Amino acid sequence: MSGKRILIASGNPGKVREFSLALVPEGFDVVGMDALGDIDEIEETGETFEANARLKAEGYSTHADMLVLADDSGIEVDALDGRPGVQSARYGGSELDDDGRCRLMLHELDGVPDERRAARFRCVLALARYGETLATFNGVIEGVINHGPKGENGFGYDPLFFHPPSGCTTAQLAPAEKQKVSHRGKAIAAMLDVLRSGEVSV
Known about the structure:
alpha/beta, Maf protein
């Protein structure tokens, strides 16, 4: 796969870092959204993670002469009836940043005991070329919402997401360790297996 270019269809620098961590050692030249120039952002109007990943991958791949990788991911909290789910990046409104969304979640879960704080991160990746999805990949990690933020690594809800097998939040894991256990890391691993096999041409 050496020398192959792939565009990461995300403006989230944390996601781009995680994709680069996995893809650069595999010989990929990872390209950001700035390579597309001034084009309209594709809105995430789908009702599922897969629908949104496909929307972005297919839409942006019509502007790129290379493979395009898009993801949609988020956190599902049982005590919130699966919210925020596909609305994870927009939870509480566009005016909130990561810290604000974490504070809102803690507020909504105030008084909820540990045994009812189960949650999971879910990720769907879509690979596309010239407007057509070539394959999708899924990853899930199960955990519990902490009673307060811990850790300086990661982004989004990582400081709140306690992963019992690791004994810490995903924000306390080193990037390489997080890659091994995270929802996005699992989806990326599944994608790399397919790319190495030649099932999807790069």
